[in-house]
């Protein structure tokens, strides 16, 4: 269905405006993040260049590294260079050896001297595997549970589902994750422990390693989705247009499937987009508990080793996913909900 | 996150009206009284509320309770652990649970887990409550200004809230906290500021939305027509009407903030040791949980019960204060 409002110019206008908003949002986020991560160590009295060369280095080494990385420049110059690196790549000039860092250049890891961007790309498949698998389970499970609950409102099933959902949102994933591993990996031995394997190398091993992550993560989100679906459904059923649909003799099934679900889907799409967006930026807690080498794991390791370029890279990468998700949600919104005005 | 009325089963039953006494006039009931009547009938919410009160009492009276049932927080009891098992309590003792150590002992050090949990409640609730207060304060100011004055101020504040909600929350928080000095008082303050600083847009958006619809209502119009100033309208007309949603959503972000604090501690950027913290206990338990599951179970349940109690109470409170629910 075409977005409501009809005229193609309106649609293009709407999309352009959303693109512009997203880009501005991303620029502001990058400025704030850059500012925070490069100012705070200064205030705390540590020199980022020192982190790079290590504690044994002479002051001369530190100064040389600072110059190479441009850390001796004012923050505005550093930011400008950083943005240039992202867009067009940049050169690090160390006198004898010049290094070129291809766009998008997030700089080099303080720890292993590798460029940050490939590091991120290396970890992305793990995070995507985790997020997509979990999302499928929670979307189906959560919405179904919510619909059934609303249809059987006040009944025993409804009460059970809602108590479970409330328990679900109250359980921290690092607790359910440990419990699940204790039971299914260490006690019953139904699932393998050990390291993560790539899908291409060993699909069964890949699924076995990810399975508990999918289920525990899905449990957490499904709970929210079930509550949201139920609340939204109960509210919609009371609306006049639903009464009209019933009055004109539509079967209950058609009323629910065609009219009620459409309105229920709107908020679900919104939070689904945001949840997926933030998960793709790294499911830090889930990845730490299950030992999955994804973006979240990379970020917590980078924080622990004070590897600022990686931390900055992961934060911006995560923000990019959230902003993108927001953008897509806004577009979908116009498609799903005819009441959204494009003007 | 879930908005809208989630009516509890008890509310679908007809309200029991007091038997009409001849000669008494029908009395108007205030929203507070109606809410209280409804809340009293919602047994699940009441159970949540009582648990919340108990937890607050435990946190406040931690030193007294600990004196009666526990041991000094950082007292080592290495006789309670078996060095041959890699420093965990002897097998078959359920993590060292006994009449002396009610919740068992920590591996390696043999510290009393009961006292860790009791004092952990202090850490958890102090940070969560303070962060919530901060979030509510900022949320009210920003939400009312945006909703009431509208125009460019509204655009500015709304975009600002979008911006904060678009940050990769936990990552940004751990990155920020990890570069700041880790002394106890300072870290506590930083955690409060970070948690509150990231959770206020939830309150801000709700307050803004409510203000937007309230400011068009007749009573605001009439106040303005008799010459009331903006400040007077905000404080005398808007705020009293915003009290209910603010109360409900504050209750509902407390559990989120408790989880946030626990997550930060779990990831190693919480209040530094030796101050007890549930999240840190759990992260410490990761290396022993295959052999000493009780040590993982106890702090995990502490977090779960606390968060669930706040959620149950907050949910019930929302239903009770919801004017749309049948009275």
Task: Give the structure's gist in a few sentences.
Chain A has helices spanning 8-44, 48-53, 59-69, 75-88, 116-151, 156-170, 173-187, 203-237, 240-247, 252-280, 284-290, 295-304, 308-336; strands at residues 90-94, 97-101. Chain A is mostly helical and 343 residues long. Chain B is an all-alpha fold.
Structural descriptors:
heterodimer, A: 343 residues, mainly alpha, MetI-like fold, 2 domains, globular, disordered N terminus, B: 327 residues, 0% strand
Descriptive overview:
- The complex is a heterodimer of chains A (343) and B (327).
- Chain A has 343 residues and is mainly α.
- Helix content of chain A is 73%, strand content 3%.
- In chain A, strand 1 (90-94) and strand 2 form a beta hairpin.
- Residues 1-5 of chain A have low confidence and may be disordered.
- Chain B is mainly α and 327 residues long.
- The two termini of chain B are 25 Å apart.
- Mean pLDDT of chain B is 81; it is low at 1-20.
- The interface between A and B is large, with 62 and 53 residues.
What would the principal axes of the Cα set say about the shape of chain B? elongated
Treating each run of at least 4 consecutive H or I residues as one helix, how many helices of chain B? 11
Major β-sheet profile of chain A: 2 strands, antiparallel
Mean pLDDT of chain B: 81
What is the CATH homologous superfamily assignment of the largest domain in chain A? MetI-like
Q: How much helical structure, as a percent, in the residues of chain A?
A: over 70%
Q: What are the secondary-structure elements of chain B, in order, as H or E?
A: HHHHHHHHHHH
Mean pLDDT of chain A: 80
**Domain module count of chain A:** 2
Helix vs. strand class of chain B: mainly alpha
Count of individual beta strands of chain B: 0
Q: Would you tell me which CATH topology of the largest domain in chain A applies?
A: MetI-like fold
- Span from first to last CA of chain A? 18 Å
**How helix-rich are the residues of chain B, as a percent range?**
55-70%
Name the pair of protein chains with the most residues at their interface, and give those residue counts: A-B, 62 and 53 residues
**Structural class by secondary-structure content of chain A:** mainly alpha
Helical stretch tally of chain A = 13
Strand tally of chain A, please?
2
CATH architectural designation of the largest domain in chain A: Orthogonal Bundle
Q: What letter string, H or E per element, gives the SSE order of chain A? A: HHHHEEHHHHHHHHH
């Amino acid at each position: 269905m075409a977005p409501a409002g009809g005229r193609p110019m309106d649609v293009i206008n709407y999309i352009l405006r959303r693109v512009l908003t997203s880009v501005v949002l991303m620029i502001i986020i990058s400025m704030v993040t850059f500012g925070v991560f490069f100012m705070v160590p200064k205030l705390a009295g540590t020199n980022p260049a020192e982190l790079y060369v290590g504690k044994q280095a002479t002051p001369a080494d530190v100064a040389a590294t600072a110059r190479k990385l441009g850390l001796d420049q004012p923050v505005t110059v550093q930011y400008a260079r950083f943005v240039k690196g992202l867009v067009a790549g940049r050169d690090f000039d160390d006198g004898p050896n010049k290094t070129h860092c291809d766009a998008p250049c997030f700089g080099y890891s303080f720890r292993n001297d590798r460029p940050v961007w490939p590091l991120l790309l290396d970890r992305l498949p793990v995070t995507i595997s985790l997020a997509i698998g979990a999302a499928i389970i929670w979307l189906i499970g959560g919405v179904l549970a919510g619909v059934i609950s609303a249809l059987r409102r006040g009944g025993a099933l409804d009460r059970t589902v809602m108590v479970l959902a409330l328990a679900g949102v109250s359980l921290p994933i690092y607790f359910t994750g440990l419990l699940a591993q204790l039971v299914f990996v260490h006690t019953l031995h139904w699932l393998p422990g050990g390291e993560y394997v790539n899908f291409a190398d060993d699909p069964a091993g890949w699924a076995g390693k990810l399975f508990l992550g999918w289920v525990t993560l899905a449990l957490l989100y499904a709970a929210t989705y079930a509550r949201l679906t139920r609340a939204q459904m109960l509210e919609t059923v009371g609306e006049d247009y639903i009464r009209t649909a019933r009055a004109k003799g539509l079967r209950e099934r058609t009323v629910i499937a065609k009219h009620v679900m459409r309105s229920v889907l709107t908020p679900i799409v919104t939070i689904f987009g945001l949840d997926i967006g933030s998960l793709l930026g790294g499911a830090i807690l889930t990845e730490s508990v299950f030992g999955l080498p994804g973006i979240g794991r990379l970020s917590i390791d980078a924080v622990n080793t004070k590897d600022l370029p990686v931390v900055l890279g992961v934060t911006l990468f995560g923000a990019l996913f959230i902003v993108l998700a927001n953008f897509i949600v806004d577009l979908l919104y116009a498609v799903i909900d005819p009441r959204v005005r494009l003007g | 996150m879930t908005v809208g009325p989630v009516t509890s089963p008890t509310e679908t039953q007809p309200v029991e009206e007091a038997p009409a006494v001849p000669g008494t006039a029908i009395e108007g009931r205030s929203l507070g009284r109606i809410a209280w009547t409804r809340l009293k009938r919602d047994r699940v919410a009441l159970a949540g509320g009582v648990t919340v009160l108990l937890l607050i009492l435990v946190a406040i009276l931690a030193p007294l309770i600990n004196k009666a049932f526990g041991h000094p927080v950082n007292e080592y009891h290495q006789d309670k652990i078996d060095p041959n098992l890699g420093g965990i309590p002897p097998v078959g003792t359920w993590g060292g649970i006994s009449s002396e150590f009610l919740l068992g002992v920590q591996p390696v050090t043999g510290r009393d887990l009961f006292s860790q949990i009791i004092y952990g409640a202090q850490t958890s609730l102090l940070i969560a409550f303070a962060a919530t207060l901060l979030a509510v304060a900022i949320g009210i100011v920003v939400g009312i200004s945006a909703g009431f004055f509208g125009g460019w101020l509204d655009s500015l504040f709304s975009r600002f809230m979008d911006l904060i909600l678009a940050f990769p929350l936990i990552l940004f928080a751990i990155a920020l906290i990890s570069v700041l000095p880790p002394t106890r008082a300072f870290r506590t303050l930083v955690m409060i500021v970070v948690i509150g600083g990231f959770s206020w847009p939830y309150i801000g958006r709700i307050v803004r939305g409510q203000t937007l619809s309230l400011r068009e209502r007749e009573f605001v119009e009439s106040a303005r027509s008799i010459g009331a100033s903006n400040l007077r309208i905000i404080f005398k007309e808007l705020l009293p009407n915003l009290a209910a949603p603010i109360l409900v959503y504050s209750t509902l972000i407390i559990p989120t903030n408790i989880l946030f604090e626990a997550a930060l501690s779990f990831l190693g950027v919480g209040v530094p040791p030796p101050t007890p913290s549930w999240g840190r206990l759990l992260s410490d338990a990761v290396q022993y949980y295959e052999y000493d599951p009780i040590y993982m179970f106890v702090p995990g349940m502490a977090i779960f019960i606390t968060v669930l109690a706040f959620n149950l109470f907050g949910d019930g409170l929302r239903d009770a204060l919801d004017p749309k629910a049948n009275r």
